[in-house]
Amino acid sequence: VPSAASPPGPTNVTDPGLAPGLAPVPPLPAAAALQLPTPSAAAESEPTPGAPHAASTAQPPSPPKAGAARKFAAFLTHDWGDDELGRSNHARVIQAAHRLRAAGQSVWLDEDEMRGDVNRQMADGIEASAAIVVFITRRYLTKVAGAGPNGDDDNCKFEFDFALRRAGVKRMIAVVMEPSLRDPRQWEGVVGGKLGGKLYVDLADDGAQFERGIERLLAEMRAVLAEDAGGRQSPAPTSSGSHPQPTTPVDEPWPPVLVMDGQPFALQGWNGEFKRTAELVNGRPAYRRADVRLAGGFFPLLAG
């Protein structure tokens, strides 16, 4: 099962069938800097269990308000207990939060943001976050399924269910925190049903592998941030009766690029439709796990 734990870098694609549709790309301009959210002030109170349970059937995410800004780059949802190796999962998530903040990302963490009405704080944090980072342990899977000590009134269940309704799977990033869960087939219940098909970030180990996982998590968060910012722009009006032509979204200013043997190539037949944002690979923009519509249908890009 592939994971997103490996360090960023171009993936060599050697399928000879792609050659006829590829052409070398000249040097392209660097990406514009992404405006990062401002970190919020930390609070001292801790969360308490017993949040009212959210309905288990997720609804489609609500459309974002045009022009509205997100306060946080990501909402971090996790269980506070020990993991299968006896490590404090909460302490390891705090460590991850410190790394993300050091990289300039503002994140919502219950230890910092909980005060007053706990349910409202969790809901507001999810609404104000571009990405939802789900730190997966077996205890978390059990709690989200409503089988933990607090049943359907568990904070983890509330956060996951509400995030599904408000953000949707597309803006949720799965992070594996235990070695035995590197196989998504082990993800039981609704978490596995919703996130089991996505690539995940691996933070199951400590040391250098943990740091590499943080770099991958940062890349995933930045991709969600850029896509979320583009989707929150006001749509341009179109002429009545006209057929609008596919255009490049504001955060995707380049044609799609596929990296083959370290050399970027432009894909021919692109009509402007894709799902992921550009990243710089060897100084040039490339797409990661994007779906680009070609003349022959959808083609999954694996560059970057």
Task: Explain how this protein is built.
It comes from Diacronema lutheri. Residues 1-10 have a biased composition (Pro residues). Residues 235-245 have a biased composition (Polar residues). Residues 30-43 have a biased composition (Low complexity). Residues 89-218 form the TIR domain. This protein starts with 21 loop residues before the first strand and ends with a strand. The strands form three sheets. Strands 3-2-4-5-6 form a five-stranded parallel sheet, sandwiched between helices. A hairpin with a 2-residue loop joins strand 9 (278-281) and strand 10 (284-294). The chain contains seven helices and eleven strands. The protein is globular and about 35 Å long. 26% of the residues lie in helices and 18% in strands. The chain has two domains: 16-32 and 253-302, no CATH class; 72-231, 3-Layer(aba) Sandwich (Rossmann fold), CATH 3.40.50. Helix 3 (118-127) packs parallel to helix 5. It has helices at 89-102, 110-113, 118-127, 138-144, 155-166, 189-195, 208-231, and strands at residues 22-24, 72-77, 107-108, 129-136, 172-176, 201-202, 257-260, 263-267, 278-281, 284-294, 297-302. With 304 residues, it is α/β, with parallel strands linked by helices. The longest helix is centred in the last third of the chain and has 24 residues, at 208-231.
